[in-house]
Each structure stands twice: as C-alpha cells, then as structure tokens.
Amino acid sequence: MTRLTWRTAGESHGAALIGVVEGMPAGLELSVERIDADLARRQRGYGRGGRMKIETDRVEILSGVKGGVTLGSPVAYRVSNKDSVIERLPIPTNPRPGHADLAGCLKYGHRDPRAVLERASARETATRVAAGAIARQVLEAFGIEVFAHLDSLGGASVRPDAWEAAGERRAELRDGSEFLALDPDADECLKAVVDAARADQDSLGGSFEVRALGLPPGLGSYQSGPERMTARIGAALFAIPAIKGVEFGIGFEVAERPGSDVHDPIVPAPAGAPMRYARPSNRAGGLEGGVTNGEALVVRAAMKPIPTLRRGMPSVDFATGEATQATYQRSDVTSVPACSVVGEAVVALALAEAFLEKYGGDSLAQVRAAYDFHMDEVRRV
User: What are the beta bridge partners of residue 278?
Assistant: First the structure.
C-alpha cells in the first residue's frame, strides 16, 4: 500500500493543468462525471470574472484506470486550458500588492511577475478539485460525505442556523444558490454586496464551512504534531491561495468561554447506536487530540479579498523604481463560492489520506476488511 499523495503541475495560461494521485486502492469504480461535476461547481459563483466564460473544465484520465475501475497504479489526469496564451501575454512592469508577484520575483531574482503569477494563480486549484473529487470517491464508498457551503461574503452572513435549517435539502439548496450557500433568502443581499464592490472597483473576501459526515473515530494521531488531523486539515486549507484563517468547531470562541462551555460532555449512547458513547454537543468540531472522535467534522476557513483591483493599488515600477499603480490583470470581484469547492476538495484529500493510512490495503476489498474489523472493535470499546 502506497500512501495517498498528490501533485499538480501547469500554469494558468499554459497548455493544461496536470495532476497525479498516487496510492489509490485498486477496485474502485471511478466516476469521471463526478469529477467533472465538481470542476463545474468550482467555476460557479456570482462575482466571477471573464475567465470562467472561456474555460469549460473537463478532466481527461491518462492512467491508473481501466474500464472505469482503478488499477492501484498512479492516476494521472489533465484539465486542458482553452485560454492557453502564456507566450503572448505581456510582462507586467510592476508587482501587485497581495499577490505572490514581488515575493516570487525576489525569490528567483528576476523582474518578470508573469513567471510567478502563472503558477501562483488560483487557476491551479482546478487540479486540486479534480484530485479531491478522485479521493472523495474512496470516502463515499464507506458512507462518508464531505460538504462545503458559503458562510459569509464581504461582511454579509447567511443565517447562523443555515445548516440545521437545510437538513436533508442541503445539496438542493446549495446547488440552487448563486453563492453556493444554504440560505435562499441571503442571495439577494449577497448580490447587492458584490454589485457595490464591483461599482467601487474593489474586491471581497468571505468565509465558508466544510463538514464531513460519517467519519469513523480514530483517523489521525495524538502521538505527534504533524499527524494530528487539526494540523493536516489546517495545512491543506492554508495551502489554498488567499486563505488567512482556519477554525474547528466553535474556533476562536474557545478563548472567550470557560471550559465548562467548551468541552463536549460524554454520555451513554442510546440503544442501537454504533458506539457506546455519545455527545450532546459538538463544539470540538469532531476532533479531540488531533483524532476524529466519531462526531461530524466542522471546519471553517476565511478567504481574503482578491488582490487584483480594477482601481489599482500602489506599487513600484521595476525599471524606474518610481511609484505607480499596479497593473490590472483580469480577475473576479469575489471567488469565495469557488473557494468553498476547493476547500471541500482539499479536506477530502486530507481525510482520504488519513483513512487509507488507518485502513491501508492494495485493493478496496482489503481496505473494507480493515474498516469493518475496526468498526466492530469500536462497538466493543
């Protein structure tokens, strides 16, 4: 069993984005349609720019699958770029604040932000969404659902009980929202916020929530820092461009509450429950000691506003060293809804990695045998 790993390659306006997922067990029926559906969802969202009108992302599986079933070998795939004009695009004469432009140029010792921004672009996240869509199909084979939805945008929030109110209609409500939110009444308010920012030639950030339902207890480890699921999921989310904050459960509220109002009590489970223990609350967000505890995983992430502003931002000309306005590159007003899809994907990748670590096997049947053994054990603890 090879540990689940993934890697991407490609530039925003290059020929294609490439990805490789290694460590997938053999015998999984892999749906390309499910991958394409997640790629299409990533392109949605009110406030997106012109690039989404050009690209229609579809995945092409290059290896690791035969007859729609994984072989156990690396799964390689490609997402082609229609707007593959990297060699014809001008070189910006100044770096944009908030982007990797200047930091990248300082790192490599050159004055070509194009050489930096083409890879640093959020366009790369399409490859991560494809990788997450592959990994999540392992989780779904064991009844695990990973679900993201928009929580706030530009200071406007959806109703605080949106998840509870949505209930089993969550997928229907999210897919019917231009913001991938669970509160239908919030869409018009969110549109107004985006329209105002567009008129002001500004950009907006926001936050989203990812939940994972049906997780078994015991994923991750308390034995070392890097193995904790808090560290692994946090790192996965922070690796997304523009993510500036991550919290689990009630998050930063733990700093303001007493312990009696933070920790989740342990009570006897009702008859017929999968474990002998239950929790009347889930303020920990499904993780204790860096390990899943059988409750739903709840994690939120905050995205900063897109740094490319139509109005420009103060910058410095590379050639003259004089003050100037940063060059405008085609951009969204906001992409928080799309970022929620990326967040869902990377959380699925982190969970699938931990799941296959615990229940490792070369084939899906071997993984299932280990999973079933552990769940029988859990019922006796």
Answer: 267
93 phi and psi angles, rounded to 5 deg: -90, 0
Question: 229 and 287 in contact (C-beta within 8 Å)?
Answer: yes
- What span, in angstroms and rounded, lies between the C-alpha atoms of 257 and 130? 40
Nearest alpha-carbon partner for 35 in 72, 65, 1, 4:
65
**Domain positions in the chain:** 5-249+284-378
CA distances from 289 to 90, 224, 227 (A): 50, 10, 10
Q: Counting beta carbons within 10 angstroms of the beta carbon of residue 316, is it exposed (0 to 12), middle (13 to 18) or buried (19 or more)? A: middle
**What pLDDT, in 10s, does the model give residues 244-292?**
999 999 999 999 999 999 999 999 999 888 889 999 999 999 999 999 9
Query: The tokens of 44 are what?
Result: 């949605």
Strand extents, DSSP E, the chain: 5-9, 16-22, 59-63, 65-66, 69-70, 75-80, 145-153, 156-157, 206-213, 243-248, 267-268, 277-278, 287-288, 291-292, 297-303, 314-316, 323-325
CB atoms within 10 A of CB 200: 12
**Band of residue 174 on the pLDDT scale cut at 50, 70, 90:** very high
* Sign of the alpha-carbon torsion through 211, 217, 221, 223: positive
DSSP string over 269-322: PPTT-SSSEE-S--TTTTEETTEE-SSPEEEEEEEPPPS--TT--EEE-TTT--
Amino acid (1-letter code) at residue 111: R
Query: Could you give the 3-state DSSP secondary structure of residue 379?
Result: coil
CATH topology classification for 5-249+284-378: Chorismate synthase, AroC fold (3.60.150)
DSSP 57: -
Among candidate residues 307, 146, 367, the one with its CA nearest the CA of residue 236: 146
Structure tokens at 334: 């906001």
Report the Cα–Cα distance between both ends of the chain, in Å, rounded.
28
Side chain identity at residue 174, one-letter code: R
Dihedral, 135, 138, 140, 145 alpha carbons, nearest 10: -40
* 312-343 tens-digit pLDDT: 889 999 999 999 989 877 678 999 999 999 99
Nearest 10 degrees: Cα torsion 83, 87, 91, 97:
40
Q: Which residues in 290-314 are b (16+ Cβ under 10 Å) and which e?
A: bbbbbbbbbbbbbbbbbbbbeebee
